[in-house]
Design goal:
By secondary structure, this protein is α/β, with parallel strands linked by helices. The chain has one domain. The protein contains twelve helices and nine strands. It has a seven-stranded mixed sheet, with helices on both faces. A two-stranded antiparallel ribbon has the order 6-7.
């Protein structure tokens, strides 16, 4: 046990130091470094490659296989960029991080809702640099979002400190955390939700279409909307070419999310995710088992 704890501390120390070193580099260098690393992951990480291929075949059946494979490989490179950029997001000087957003789309509508004390729910799918969205919004407005501790517990303090340094408020990913989200909304504030994580047993979920395929999807958003009358937006920090920074894109969620019929509203969540993916499909995390926990055959078993 002691040896295991020591090993975990060493791993966490190496990862934290690596993030710190990466935070010192120009953004273009970090993103360029992800190309060879991500290419190696695509070539040798059979599990991630298979998941991406299955997801893309289900979501884009009419796309030629060669195009899907190219999209899958680029997606792995982009998620590698996301991981390498974490050091910058959490450890680089704050003004340097905030300056990474060089253009904005839809920010005025969110700011107006906040000025009017209209509660806002921000959907942040796993696309682009989602950590930058939390940093930027936390700097401008009161912002509460859920947090699940990492598998490597020794990294918890590093990640918590990084995510909260702009003023964000973390709540646990459990019933207590849901209560915290409700309180924030009733104060007329903004909260963030990850809409594309498959809920575990007992967390509440419905099978609704995602790119025409049944996908277990959380019911949390419709419940919060019905209880608070919150306005919903979907967010993307789109990575621009050659390390030029990011574009913040905020678009109104699909109107179905406001339906009193829960299944219709949950389908609206997935429709909202599809809408934002269309801005940069290569930056979406396709190597995630989005269609797990659905009845019938496990599509990820070869």
């Amino acid at each position: 046990m002691k040896k295991s704890k020591l090993s975990n501390r060493l791993k966490a120390g190496v990862i934290s130091k690596g993030w710190w070193l990466l935070s010192l580099l120009p953004l273009a260098w970090v993103q360029a470094l992800a190309v060879p690393i991500g290419s190696l992951v695509w070539r040798f990480a059979k599990r991630e490659r298979n998941i991406a291929k299955v997801n893309l075949a289900l979501c884009f059946p009419k796309m030629p296989k060669a195009e899907r494979d190219a999209l899958g490989k680029q997606s792995i490179i982009e998620i590698t960029r996301t991981m390498l950029e974490m050091g910058r997001m959490w450890m680089a000087p704050k003004d340097k991080v905030l300056a990474d957003f060089v253009s904005f789309q839809g920010l005025e509508a969110v700011e107006e809702a906040n000025r009017n004390k209209q509660p806002v729910i921000l959907l942040g799918p796993h696309i682009g640099q989602w950590e930058l969205i939390a940093q930027f919004i936390s700097h401008k407005l009161p912002f509460t979002f859920m947090y699940s501790p990492p598998k490597l517990a020794e990294l918890d303090s590093t990640i918590r400190e990084g995510r909260c340094r702009m003023g964000g408020n973390l709540v646990p990913a459990d019933l207590k955390g849901v209560a915290g989200l409700l309180k924030a909304l009733k104060r007329g504030e903004m909260i963030g939700i990850l809409p594309d994580q498959v809920p575990e047993k007992g967390q509440g979920g419905k099978l609704v279409p995602f790119y025409g395929q049944a996908a277990l999807t959380a019911t949390l958003l419709p419940k919060l909307v019905q209880k608070t009358g919150a306005k919903v937006f979907t967010a993307l920090a789109k990575r621009l070419p050659k390390g030029k920074g990011f574009e913040l894109i905020l678009i109104p969620a699909d109107e179905k999310v406001y339906s009193e019929d829960e299944e219709t509203a949950v389908a609206g969540v997935n429709a909202s995710v599809e809408q934002i993916i269309a801005y940069a499909p290569e930056q979406y995390q396709w190597a995630y088992k989005r269609f797990k926990n659905t009845p019938g055959k496990d599509v990820y078993k070869s």
